[in-house]
Amino acid sequence: MKKAFSFCVFFLFLFMTHSARAIKFEHIGIAEGLSQLSVMSIHQDRLGRMWFGTEEGLNLYDGQRVKVFKPRYKIDAHSEKGKDGLLGNNNYPITEDRSGNLYFCSDGKLIKYNLHLQSFHTVFSKDVSTVTSHNGTIWFSCKNAIYEIVEDTARLFFNTQADIQITSLHVQANDLWIGSDNGLYTYNSRKGFQLFLPQTAIRSMYEDSRKNLWVATLNNGAYQIAPDRTLTRYVYDRNNPNSISSNLVRCFTEDSTGKIWIGTFKGLNCLDTTSGKCTCYTADDKHKLSHSSVFSLCRDQQGNIWVGTYYGGVNYFNPETNIFNYYSANDLHYPFVGSMLETPDHRLWICTEGGGLTCFNRTDETFHNFSINWQQPEEQMAHNNLKAICYHPASQRLFIGTHTGGLVSYSLTNRTFKHYYLQSPAYTSQLGPVVDNLAIYQNQLIIQVRGGLYTMNLQTETCTPLFNNPLYKSIWVHTFTVDSQGYIWIASHTKLSRIQMSHPDNARHYPLGKNGLGHFAITRIIETPEKEIYIGTRGSGLFKYDASSEQFLSYTQDKDQLLSDYCYDIAVSPKGSLIITGDKGITLFNPQTGKSKFIGLENNVPISAINIGCKVYVCQDGEIFVGGVDGLMSFKEEDIDIKQPESHLYFSTLWVNNQEIYPGEDNHILQTTLPAARKIELTHNKNNILLQFASTNYTASTQSGIYEYRLMGFDEQWHTTNSYHIPYASLPVGHYQLVVREKNPKSPNYTPQQASLEIEIHPAWYQTVWAYLIYTLLIGFILFWFIRFYYSRMKLRAAVQLERADKERIQALNQSKINFFTTVSHEFRTPLTLIISQIELLMQGSPLPPNVYNRLIKVHKNAQSLKELISELLTFQKQGENVLSLQVKEIKMTPFLKEIHQSFSDFAETNQIDYKLTCHAPDAICWGDEKQLKKVFNNLLSNAFKYTDKQGEIELVINENDNELQIQVIDNGIGISLTDQAHIFELFYQASHEKENGYSLRGSGIGLALTKKIVEAHHGKISVRSQANYGSIFTVTLRKGKAHFANAPT
After folding, report:
1. CA 779 to CA 783: how far, in whole Å?
2. Structural class in CATH, domain 889-1045
């Protein structure tokens, strides 16, 4: 048995791997728009954009999109106006001159791309093999000769006269290095043309920051030529783990730390020339190269390394911001990482959820795996699905909780396992096969199982329930921890409990959703070195226990304190930060300041997801290990504060009225390429624009992906976008400034980017200053003519008013005469009455002679006629003075008012007025003078129509109660001010609003006064409620019955 065990242990210890710092390569391929996967050259222009030369065209990448130039593709109208455009498929190498214009070889031709005009031009049309630049001067080779570009003209510099094919050029101080298919040569004016490396096929050359020249060869590895011409060679050695991976070397670049990156046929190599250590990256693992055959390398302004491969497109990464170590499923024997523990010998013990237990020696970076041996399970791990682990220093044992394998211990001294589930029936009957959590407390092992909490005496290894209280025995525990004060914190489905271990009756229970605690399940409870209790939840965020108030303080995503409210695990760093893992990544929360730092899963981290059950652990030296669903990663807290590389936003593309705009077109919108433009000017009919913007920040760890923009002078607030498109339609004439900036950058040490562009929309010719000057003169002339016309009308009006005054004077004179006549007539009546009475006495007295009596009869008759004439004259005068005599009778008001209402219907229809009758008293009866009341309602309705505009509303409403009848005339006309309402029923009074609104000719000031007289004659009341510019309500109230008309004729 011991031999079998020893063999198993030996077999397991053979699985030893080394892990270097992980690099997560970002990829650009066909799916991202690349024209072809063979990327032979990479270059960054001065605007920050990346150019990829492939075997099928040239590609321009701005961080968001790839623009492809192929021979059949015309970049703009310039290509059709005497310029050549792109002429070939193979476009490499790429370089630039001092003005930023690009030069590259294209199927044997030298092509220039004007960066500002965005146009291609053929510089040299035959047998060009390579091109380079030095201090802005362009050098290229044609067959065995070397040329330089001077003032846009190719000038022969040197002819080697050798039978060689030049493959690369490099200018270093006064030396010109010439790489060929048969050796490396050097040329200067003093020593001439000399062979330096014979019989060696040269692929490329690169000069590092220390003036070392690196030479890539076809089969002889890489050479380093020092400034003193000392030669160092790097070749592949299968027995040397620090050798380069292939002798077929193609390219070089240098990072900010001085490390040399070497592209080979079998991977990308990172060479530390100081230590001699060389690390190789291939396409064999996750996040690695898309293809191992590397053809081109380029370091951009941010320090990103761009890698062009033969069949994998473009890869890029940033070694400066790469702070993570990554340990794959191959290292751990399973991708899902759970609980972890470090022992004093700096070994990290890692529980997986299917690969058993892995021991990571952090000193030599080796891995040893312990998994189940199904032939002899009692001698190995009880199960490969591990849930918890803890360490007992006194006995140097690890205690491991498994899923369906029960509790297991592992002795670090004799390297043996013990299975309590398989070997102890007493254990089996109490605890069961599933152990979810473990903790050491005062030489006891506290065990969390599905049936509650148990304790094992580590000397006798006997198990008993942690508490005898039946309430605690069968509780379903989510998680627990024991604090430094001797209290155990237990989280269950419905509550959080705090129980004193020595006196279990001393307990406090906090229901979920109460005392400030969240409603969702608790996932983790932890005590900090400051003796503060923090609780993580699955959806409610993070909580801190306040012992003084017995309340819980919350920290959430909404307060920008957490990356997510789903907190899976918590650990404390040496700096006191809480390391909180969740579904969106990692939060480093500082309890002292309340500030947080975030590491999102998209922030260039090597693991793709963190799930419930994935744990976080902080080692003694502060290295933080985070488990994921696809491996394990680690980092140092201080590395997060590394200053992030600078970058800038720029506007990349302009569309006007759905047409893309290029520099130098006939529309004169762009004089240079848009990223270099500071202002664009548009005409009034070209005011529908779409601007695309991009960023030179290619580092995923600092990109937020969310931007906000605002057109100053047009927008009142910022607009948020993640589409890199900014549209504006029908912009009015004016001067604007478009500003776009990055919102919520992910890195705390990253300055948000911002770009701005002035936009001016010019007015049409009829909106110019000259046009407005003409308009002013024209208006002045019209105004002058109007004033003249106005004064002539005023003169005419004065003459009319004078004539009217004369007429009024004559009318007043006539009225005076009538008044005098009436007065005299009234005086005639008294003596006439006396005369008639005397005649009647004479006629009734003693008999008179017939002739006298007949004469008296004639006199009496004529005198009576004269009295009646005088009475009629006085009656007419009384009517003029509004002293009315009513002819009262019973009136059925509904038919009566319907007839009046109907008489205005045609007028209402003509004037488009909503005119209606609302009757709430269909059987209403009233006593009165029908003729006079008709005048009342005709007058009120007439006034309503006078002062109600078209589209207005007028309503005649009939209401009644026990004693009275109310008739209302309602309109939404111009209304009556509060001041005018006090005088509106006075004779000849005209309201002020009539004069102000031009209604002075509509009313005479008599109608309402007469109406009031008639209503009052009927013992009724009339009132008005109105508001200027709102409308009016006239209410006539008439008494029912006829008792109040006792003296009126019927």
Report:
1. 6
2. alpha beta
